[in-house]
């Protein structure tokens, strides 16, 4: 007799052993391939553990290379071994003003958030540093996704106020960990800030294909029941993730394909569940990227998508006619769009203005419209 119901999921049965394993802020049990970066972070934190001041650092690397995870991991290790150091991790995508960033620090140091209104900044500042001084604690603040603080020049103020605290509170021992997704262009700090913030640089290189595969496999073990994800399916997801240079997408695909499989009552994830998840996630990702662009950058993306492919000179003429922007700005925008993987560029040798290149869109015009909900 044949076997029945084998492939079919029973009600209230789940493919997931633990769905939280796929949350974006989950700290994985295995965190491999980042040993040297973890060592460097340890090295920068060590002086604080010994009662001094941590070293300032700047942590850079492409999206989803483990920067946030590494810092959060090391912060929790420090707090396990000593109570002399207060580590605050601030997500600057959410906390974009000086008040908001210092409120997070206040919360960690003092134990609660300051009132949202009516308290002048110096009072919050004083509460933080008096408490640290009294308890002889050192402070490390990670400004994660610090690029979000550059739009209104908050980064300057915040770093300055943190690093100059010892002038007002002589016992203050502070350090800043600036975390930046390396998207091809650099942010400049004011001279007065860059002269006190000379960070130790830590770089997170992109994962290789084999590393992505291994990371995803261990996530599968952690999050799914045995047998749920066939070998060929992990391979397929790892491929997608590697081609798109984004491990995070791979983790998201695992979760979404499992949900698709569950919806069909399947006990295993099949390639078609992955394909469906991929189509969806591509649009969501595109939507996110587009929403982070300026008006001019968005216009340029659309121009390129309409054309599909164009020589950069031709493109610039159109762009200039519509925006009036300079050649330098145009080139900077192209660099950014390429770093964000919205376009590809191919060099074609020398032209009158130096190197010429062909610009190719990674998305079709209708995909961009759809992602924008139009
Ligand atoms: N070495 C690794 N082992 C296991 N999981 C990892 C590893 N590196 C990254 N991840 C996972 O990949 C995802 C992205 O990592 P993380 O958020 O730390 O990247 P990031 O460098 O801070 O990215 P971004 O620049 O976009 O903020 C997370 O789900 C994290 O758990
Ligand atoms: Mg991050």
Give the domain tally: 3
What name does the CATH topology of the largest domain carry?
Rossmann fold
- Helix and strand succession? HEHEHHEHHEHEHHHHHEHHEEH
CATH hierarchy class name of the largest domain: Alpha Beta
Q: Spatial order of the strands in the main sheet? A: 2-3-4-1-5
**How many β-strand stretches?**
8
Write down the overall geometry: globular
Find the CATH superfamily of the largest domain: P-loop containing nucleotide triphosphate hydrolases
Q: What percentage of the residues does DSSP assign to strands (E)?
A: 5-15%
Task: Give helix % range.
Answer: 40-55%
Please describe the biggest sheet, giving its number of strands, its sense, and whether it closes into a barrel. Answer: 5 strands, parallel
Tally of alpha and pi helices: 15
- The assigned CATH architecture of the largest domain is 3-Layer(aba) Sandwich
Please give the radius of gyration in angstroms: 24 Å
Structural class, by secondary structure, is alpha/beta
Q: What report would you give on this structure?
A:
- With 374 residues, the chain is an alpha/beta fold.
- The protein folds into three domains: 35-204, Rossmann fold (3-Layer(aba) Sandwich); 207-290, Orthogonal Bundle (Helicase, Ruva Protein, domain 3); 293-371, Orthogonal Bundle (Arc Repressor Mutant, subunit A).
- The protein is 50% helix and 14% strand.
- It has 15 helices and eight strands.
- It has helices spanning 35-49, 67-81, 98-110, 121-135, 154-163, 165-168, 191-194, 209-223, 231-243, 247-263, 271-291, 295-307, 312-323, 327-339, 365-371, and strands spanning 57-61, 85-91, 138-144, 174-181, 200-204, 309-311, 343-351, 354-361.
- Strands 2-3-4-1-5 form a five-stranded parallel beta sheet, sandwiched between helices. Strands 6-8-7 form a three-stranded antiparallel beta sheet.
- The longest helix is centred in the C-terminal third of the chain and has 21 residues, at 271-291.
- Residues 67-68, 144-145 line the site of magnesium ion.
């Amino acid at each position: 007799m044949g076997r029945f119901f084998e492939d079919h999921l029973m009600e209230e049965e789940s493919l997931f052993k633990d769905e939280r394993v796929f949350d974006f802020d989950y700290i994985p049990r295995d965190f491999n391939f980042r040993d040297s970066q973890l060592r460097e972070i340890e090295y920068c934190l060590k002086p604080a553990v010994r009662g001094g001041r941590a070293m300032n650092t700047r942590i850079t690397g492409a999206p989803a290379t483990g920067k946030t995870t590494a810092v959060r991991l090391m912060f929790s290790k420090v707090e396990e071994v000593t109570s002399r150091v207060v580590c605050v991790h601030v997500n600057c995508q959410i906390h974009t003003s000086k008040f908001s960033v210092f409120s997070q620090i206040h919360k960690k140091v003092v134990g609660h958030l300051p009132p949202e209104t009516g308290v002048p900044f110096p009072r919050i500042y004083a509460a933080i540093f008096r408490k640290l001084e009294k308890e002889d604690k050192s402070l490390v603040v990670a400004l994660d996704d610090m690029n979000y603080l550059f739009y209104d020049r908050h980064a300057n103020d915040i770093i300055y106020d943190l690093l100059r605290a010892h002038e007002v509170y002589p016992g203050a021992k502070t350090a800043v960990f600036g975390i930046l997704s390396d998207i091809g262009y650099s942010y400049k700090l004011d001279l007065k800030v860059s002269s006190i913030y000379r960070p130790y640089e830590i770089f997170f290189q992109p994962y290789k294909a084999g590393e992505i595969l291994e990371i995803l496999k261990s996530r599968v073990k952690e999050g799914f029941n045995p047998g749920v994800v066939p070998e060929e399916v992990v391979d397929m997801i790892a491929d997608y993730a590697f081609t798109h240079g984004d491990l995070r997408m791979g983790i998201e695909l695992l979760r979404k394909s499992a949900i698709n499989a569950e919806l069909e009552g399947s006990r295993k994830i099949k390639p078609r569940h992955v394909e469906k998840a991929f189509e969806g996630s591509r649009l969501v990702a595109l939507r996110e990227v587009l929403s982070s662009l300026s008006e001019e950058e968005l216009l340029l993306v659309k121009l390129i998508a309409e054309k599909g492919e164009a020589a950069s000179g031709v493109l610039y003429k159109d762009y200039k006619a519509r925006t009036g922007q300079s050649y330098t700005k145009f080139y900077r925008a192209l660099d950014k769009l390429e770093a964000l993987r919205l376009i590809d560029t191919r060099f074609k040798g020398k032209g009158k203005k130096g190197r010429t290149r062909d610009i190719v869109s990674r998305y079709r015009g209708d995909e961009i419209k759809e992602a924008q909900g139009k």
